[in-house]
Amino acid sequence: MTAIDLSPRLSHRLVRLYTGLTLYGLAIALQIKSALGGSPWDVFHQGLAVHFGLSVGTWVIIVGAAVMVVWIPLKQKPGLGTISNVFLVGLACDAGLWLLPSPHVWPLQWLYLVSGILLLAFASVLYIGAKLGPGPRDGIMTGLVRLGLSVRLARFLIEITVLSIGWLLGGTAGIGTLLFALAIGPLVQQFSRKFPLS
After folding, report:
1. Domain coordinates in residue numbering, the chain
2. Over 50: is that where the pLDDT of 4 sits?
3. How much is the average pLDDT of 148-171?
4. Is 74 within 8 Å of 144 (Cβ atoms)?
5. Beta-carbon-side half-sphere exposure of residue 25 (alpha carbons within 13 Å)
């Protein structure tokens, strides 16, 4: 049996992974609590919760696990980060939704929204930079790219699909969804300069 590598480098990557995933779940909770609209995937998770019951975090876990089944024909391989993502993000999201008070005035709603988007970008850089496996939803995009689609087209098709279904099921799409779409890429790029992905 091969011993597990517990070098400082691996320890650092594990801390980075689990901190990033926990903050990612809290960031989702902030955006949902803002009631101004979340990311396309979170509109989908919220729509499932509204329409079918169970908590948003539970749906994050269920969808993450289901999405990994799609990895099989796409020939994607999960890592520790992938498996951890499925469970920890959903648990942290539900904890955040339970702990955070609901803002009832628009300045606080905007504070929640902007804080959530900033935190999600930072959390993304942390967990992706750990290089312990992509998130389950990211794996669909990379699998489609491997089949010949461009990154832009693959991401657009996935996100417009889950956004549309989530909105039809009762998820909250709005100005926050648009702001997320416009800001998340540049923010991840900025954070990655301070916390390199490699």
Report:
1. 12-194
2. no
3. 87
4. yes
5. 28
